[in-house]
Design brief:
Blueprint (H helix, E strand, L loop, with lengths): L7 H10 L6 H11 L38 E9 L6 E8 L4 E8 L4 H15 L4 E5 L8 H10 L1 E5 L9 H15 L7 H16 L13 H6 L24 H4 L2
Parallel strand pairs: 1-4, 4-5
Antiparallel strand pairs: 1-2, 2-3
Helix pairs in contact: 1-2, 3-4
Length: 255
């Protein structure tokens, strides 16, 4: 049901979706009596290195991570994945409207090519006409190459302040989910193992199936396909046909 990760609120939402009528407090009590609980989160590890000579983009978001529809605000960041063979680095791009991961890339380095690959995947999937791309002030995002790619694609870069996780809270929240539900529960012998596991987590679990409290306990893909209700919040906007999850052969990930 949840890969052993859900706490009482999401278990309650899952049971309700299956037609089982039970109170949330009773779910919590039954889980507590059975010694079952959701997973917790690990301590942070920082991958951001600021280039003091680079000029950051202005903050166009000001911690307001809401959007009235798709492809208005994207958030991006980088995290690390420990393996027995050394660190693997993961860059992602999320659509703030649906929390869906629309671009991602993995490399053994932190060079600008990593974030460019994640951005290019997002552009290929969404083809936006006018979107804000919000990140921290890491040297990858302030680089000349990244700025040039944004200008070519009509993307407006936005950056939060230095050393403040709240200025990129939505992406930090995704990484916290990835860490507590996958990275803290497995140890990867090889980087190829880590690549396959992260591919499965994003495209096999997080985007299509994992329930979000901020999305009325729908998954990102289901949220995007759900007809608009009159009482939906501004962060829940209009609908699109996203065309489903991307289709990538796992063999590509282990090259």
């Amino acid at each position: 049901m949840s890969r052993g990760t859900y706490g009482a609120p999401r278990i309650h939402a899952e049971l309700a979706a299956r037609g089982l009528q039970i109170g949330r407090k009773r779910v919590a009590r039954l889980m507590r009596n059975a010694g079952v609980q959701g997973v917790s989160r690990r301590k942070p590890f920082y991958t951001t290195v600021r280039d003091a000579a680079a000029r950051p983009a202005p903050d166009l978001v000001d911690r307001q991570f809401t959007a009235a529809g798709p492809n208005q605000l994207w958030v991006a960041d980088i995290t690390y994945v420990p393996t027995w063979a050394g660190f693997l680095y993961l860059a992602v791009v999320l659509d703030a409207w649906s929390r869906r991961v629309i671009g991602w890339a993995m490399e053994t380095h932190l060079r600008t090519e990593l974030v460019l690959a994640a951005l290019d995947m997002a552009l290929a999937q969404r083809r936006p006409t006018d979107v804000i791309h919000h990140s921290d002030q890491g040297c990858q995002y302030t680089s000349v190459a990244f700025g040039k790619r944004c200008r070519e694609a009509g993307v407006r870069p936005s950056m939060g302040s230095v050393g403040d996780a709240y200025d990129n809270a939505m992406c930090e929240s995704f990484f916290a989910t990835l860490e507590c539900e996958l990275l803290d529960r497995q140890r990867f012998r090889t980087q190829a193992d880590a690549r396959l596991a992260i591919f499965d987590f994003i495209e096999g679990w997080y985007n299509p199936r994992r329930r979000h409290s901020a999305l009325e306990y729908l998954s990102p893909m289901i949220f995007e396909r759900t007809p608009v209700k009159d009482d939906r919040t501004v962060a829940s906007g209009s609908t699109i046909d996203p065309g489903g999850a991307i289709s990538l052969s796992p063999s590509v990930l282990v090259q």
